[in-house]
Amino acid sequence: MFISYRWLSRHVDLAGVSARDLARDLTLQTAEVEGVEPFAPALADVVVGHVLSREKHPDADKLGICKVDLGPLNDGGEPFQIVCGAPNVGPGQLVAVARIGARLPVAGGEPGETFKIKKSKIRGVESCGMICSERELGLGDEHDGIWVLPQSPEGNNDLIGLPVADALGSIDGHYDWIIEIDNKSLTHRPDLWGHRGIAGEIAAIRGIQLKPIATELPACGDAAGTSVKVESKGCSRYVGIAIDGLENGKSPEWMRHLLLATGQRPIDLFVDISNFVMLDMAQPNHLFDRGALAADGIVVRDAKDGETIQTLDGEERKLTPADILITSGGEGVALAGIMGGEGSKVQEGTTSLLLELATFDAATVRRTSARLGLRSDSSARFEKSLDPTLPMKAAAHMLSLLAELQPNMTLPSAPSEDGDWNDPAMEVDLRPARARAVLGLDETQLSDERIEAMLTSLGFKVVVVGDHLAVSVPSARSTKDIGIEEDLIEEVGRVFRYDRIPERRLIAELAPVARDERRYLVRRIADRLAGSAEFHEAMSYSFLPESLVENLGIADAPCVRVKNPAAEGLERIRRTVAPSLLGFVRGNLRRVAGDGGALRLFEIGKGYLPELPHDDAAEPKEIHEVALLLARPGVASGDPADFASSSIFRLKAVVADLLVHLERAARDLDGKSGLDWSVPTEGMGLEPYCHPGKTMVACASGSDTALALVSELEPGVAAALGLTGDEACDVAFATVSIDALVEAPKEALVHRALPRFPGVKVDVALALDEATPAGDVERALVQSGKGLVKDLELFDLYTGPNVGDGKKSLAWHVLLQSDTKTLGEKDMNKFLKRVEGAAGRLGGELRSE
Amino acid sequence: MESTLSPELAEHLTSAKARIEVATSLDDLRAIERDFTDKGGVIAGLLAAIPTLPPAERRDAGQGANKLKGAVLELLEAARGGLAQAGIDAAREGRGFDPTLPGTEAPRGSLHPVTLVTRELEDIFSSMGYQILDGPEVELDTYNFERLNIPADHPARDMHDTFWCEVSGAERDSDVGILLRTHTSCVQVRAMEKLQPPFRVVAPGRVFRQETLDASHEHTFHQMEGLVVGEGLTVGHLIGTMKTFLREVFRREIEVRLRPGYFPFVEPGFELDARCPFCETEGAGCSVCKQSGWVELCPCGMVHPRVLTLSGIDPEKYTGFAFGLGLSRLVMLRYQIDDIRHLMGGDARFLSQF
Predict the structure, then answer these.
(1) Are residues A36 and A51 in the same domain?
(2) Cα(B248)–Cα(B315) distance, rounded to whole angstroms?
(3) Shared domain check, A699 and A590
(4) Residue of A nearest to B261 (CA)
(5) How far is CA A573 from CA A186, A540, A543, A570, B137, in A?
(6) CA distance B94 to chain A (A)
(7) Which chain A residues are within 8 Å of B169, Cβ to Cβ?
(8) Does one domain contain both A611 and A719?
(9) What's the total number of domains in chain A?
(10) In chain A, helix, strand, coil percent, each to 5?
């Protein structure tokens, strides 16, 4: 909301107080000020000129050559010659002159954008500056002619040569200042949505008095008033006041400038006075053309289902019974609290008006305005819960002002009114001791008397009753903001000024904080992956773009959807984290240096599976997982023998290491069974982007719960993602369920004694059926060692003519080592003998090299 | 020694000496040693000839051969030492060393900057006895609004630009309002549900606002909520806590100020400003604080008694304060990131910098 300094000074004497002082006061004690800017800064740059003469331009009918006296600024005593095209310029006028070098706002330009006036020749005649119109100075749209300034009241020429801002009575060098207040910080203060309310705050902060305004209506005639009837529960008060004798036209300059300063475009007196009073008193109001109203006057009722009204912005609005409609003769004439109707718009030449001042239910106005997407200055105020005593106060102010401007105005009848409003003024008790206890102040810092004085300055009435204060809260503050003791403590605190409260150390007896296993795991996962695994941690949106969803083939999965997405196609909330990372592959190609351009990303995040039951069943099931992505440019070799160089087996190693590091899997070969890797079972429901033949899951020993899944990207999905041709990538991804990790039994990481005796290395090659899992063979090798196998390394996988169709050869480096002796050839041979037997049991044979 | 050798042996020694002098490697020395000491070598030949000598000469000849062997081995040992030293000397020369040649690439991984800053804050708060909590990102209306004293139709809901959600493809009770949490303040309610006062908690996490993306606006960003509930807590404690926290973050004293701010779940409510850590003065032309000398750091306040009551905590017995730190903003300040979209953008060139 924009607040004009000049406007505020109508309500409170601001002598010696700058706009920046006000901004600081308000920020520290009332509401956040977002900015302070001079209004129409060009007025400080242009000067008052006295037009001495105007002669016709010899070569252009419409142009005049003016001699303009700038008083002390005249060039060696000579008046300035300025060529001017305005029809209304004439001798004797005081005008605003932009001299050479002055800066004026660019019409239609960015705020603050200016251009410089230069000496020029217009049709051969030299022109030393420009006589300005109001629009050229940033004072609205008026561009019919130049701006003729008011003569000085004494009729002397003291103003000539002064900056225009000074001639109009400047404030710190400018005509006016605009203080922008953050609307959000006024959400709870309906009383501050007008200049008078803000002025009241300043008066309380600075300990000064508000200037009085009219509180009584001008005299009313005794004609029968317009009938006003309230049938809607959403309207607690409706006041209609008939006005005669008004003549519409341009509103006075001061009013137009104040409206402009606060961001309102002046239109005509009727529109302007309505806006002015709203911005002054925070009470929205509406002027109807009384001639356009039906005989039954005004009926305020709930709209009928499907009923429509054309609002002043020209839009046809479809209503429901949840909306309040102002009607006349059964027809809607205004959408209550939001906008007037096009039909009852004041016609040209109308002198007979009905002024509406009402109090509508905040929630009803808010709902209607939200549903219709129709926000107005009026709805913004009503939805904050306006004071029902305000309508008559605003009426008195508005009609007194109108009477001043148009002495012919008359009020033919007393105000008509209906509604079952109650004065919300109430009494709230405040214990000064409680105020001090909450604020952290003692009696020497904040005495009972000081509290009383503070509340009084804010317009509360205070009576001491025993150990507490009985505080009468005026209606302007009690509709929304103040209802309990804490609300009053806030008032005391902000007048005291929060920034003056001394800091205190927090000392308390606290139970030690229990370790959160999941949080602990998350940290260790991130450290391991970003550390020795050399992955980069990414964060991605919880939303999955529909294009990605299509490409991954997961469009049919149940999901949480956003009803009002940030952009079309961003409705879907992810079920798991991996898809987000897959969405990062294409964009990151050729961005990564080192390791052949391999992209290594991980993300620890959440996903939502709404079909799963949740503990409380209310919120969708949330899952926590870590997703890993390894994408290496180039076409992956399809040969199983090249497994070691494929992304998926590299990623498998990372995941296996991670699970050991997290103590959720035993370290290989330490005597216990480690992770159990297998192809996923039917029941696991493979995601469509997982390679149907190249996916593996790891379960903790003796458990069916999958801790991790490692997969290659399904080739069709890879193609859909554009990862073909030059962009081909060997993409593998993995997911590790943090939820499963939390539940999984712990495999304590224990130290293995360092070898005391040398070991023997033996290479073992086995010819086997192609289908025999290498893991089975490794297990057999370990068993054959009877505790002596300390390390295994698969160094060759071969299929081809040397082993025959449907066969493969697997070769390991095996380290045999004993804790009690140095092993010899005998031990090695015993081992090989047992391996030979085991190979037979696996349907293969030991190859002798 | 030579003087005691026979002319024949002296000749052997001379020749050995000559060969050792020109030897340039350990292998050369080894060859010389073999020629003398191996089977069929010079020494062996000399010893083998002894039985053919007159008995009176045999003793001298035997001693002479051994002396020769000793002398040759001694020469070889010295030569070996010399060669080793020469090698060390050569190695010490450091020829062609150029300290400006590039180091070979150090492969590395990285943590996300949000993680880095979150951890820093978590560690600070942990050291002050705070428990770290997590809460769901797809939240219920009741936690995000209702129990934070923001009932339906409250205009404060407008500030939140809420993403409202529904569920597709699964059966659900459609009356339950679900949304993407607009702040981490929901965790306040979850904390009060779970914990008995006194307690101190912080809850970092991602939050969502229906915003159009640009360099300074994101629909997904990070916050950290703080909540302290206990007996006798005051505004002074809140100020003291925030100053302590800032001192830890910026590693020096930072001036702060409280000013009024409106949030329905606190009363009184504040905005906490910190002296701009970059310019520390008003009007210095600093873009971070927009010349004000203050940066808005976090909304905070004393927990509204109704919020306590709604969670079954007696506001007469307990008071509390809450604060909400803008994590994404702190991250951007800390690493001078000028475009918030980088944080969630997944660009490896960005991520690998941390």
Answers:
(1) no
(2) 31
(3) yes
(4) A185
(5) 34, 12, 5, 8, 10
(6) 29
(7) 556-559, 610-611
(8) yes
(9) 6
(10) 30, 30, 45
Give residue-wise pLDDT tens across range B291-348: 778 888 889 999 999 999 999 999 999 999 999 999 998 899 889 888 999 999 999 9
Chosen from B114, B163, B239 to mutate, greatest number of chain A CBs within 10 A: B163
Q: Which range marks the domain in which residue A436 is found?
A: 426-497
Q: Do A645 and A776 belong to one domain? A: no
N residues, chain A: 849
Chain A residues inside the 8 Å CB shell of B176:
618
- B260: nearest CB among A29, A437, A540: A29
Average pLDDT, chain A: 91
DSSP state of A322: T
Q: 3-state class of A566 per DSSP?
A: coil
Read off the pLDDT of residues A273-331 as tens digits, 9 standing for 90 and up: 999 999 999 999 999 999 888 888 999 999 999 999 999 999 999 999 999 999 999 99
Q: Which residue of B has its CA nearest to A438?
A: B234
* CATH assignment of the domain containing A126: 2.40.50.140
> Residue A672 has what pLDDT?
46
Give me the interface pTM, i.e. the ipTM: 0.85
Strand pairing partners for A127?
A120
Express each pLDDT in B167-219 by its tens digit. 877 666 655 789 999 999 999 999 999 999 999 999 999 999 998 888 888 99
Q: Which residue of B has its CA nearest to A507?
A: B237
Q: Are residues A406 and A267 in the same domain?
A: yes
b (16+ CB within 10 A) / e for A351-388: bbbbbbbbbbbbbbbbbbbeebebebebbbbbbbbbbb
Q: Which helix (H) or strand (E) holds B294?
A: strand B294-303
- Looking at the structure, do residues A28 and A60 belong to the same domain, yes or no? no
* Amino acid A266: pLDDT: 93
CATH number, residue A438: 3.30.56.10
Q: What is the pTM of this model?
A: 0.84
Q: How far is B258 from chain A (nearest CA, A)?
A: 5
A181 found inside a domain: yes
pLDDT value at B119 more than 80: yes
Say which CATH number the domain at A685 has. Answer: 3.30.930.10
Using CB atoms, which residue from A561, A565, A594 is nearest to B168?
Answer: A561
Residue of chain B whose alpha carbon sits nearest to that of A515:
B131
Best mutation target, A445, A482, A490, A661, to test chain B (most B CBs within 10 A)? A490
Residue of A502, A508, A541 lying closest to B236 (CB–CB): A502
The class (CATH top level) of B113-135+182-351 is alpha beta
Residue with tokens 């039985």: B51
Shortest CA gap B99–chain A (Å): 22
Residue (of A710, A684, A689) closest to A698 by Cα position: A710
In a domain, A631, yes or no: yes
Q: At A783, which CATH number?
A: 3.30.70.380
Closest partner residue to A619 among B139, B200, B239, by Cβ?
Answer: B139
**Does B194 touch chain A if contact means CB atoms closer than 8 Å?**
no
pLDDT digits (tens, 9 = 90+) for B7-42: 888 888 898 899 998 988 889 899 999 988 888 888
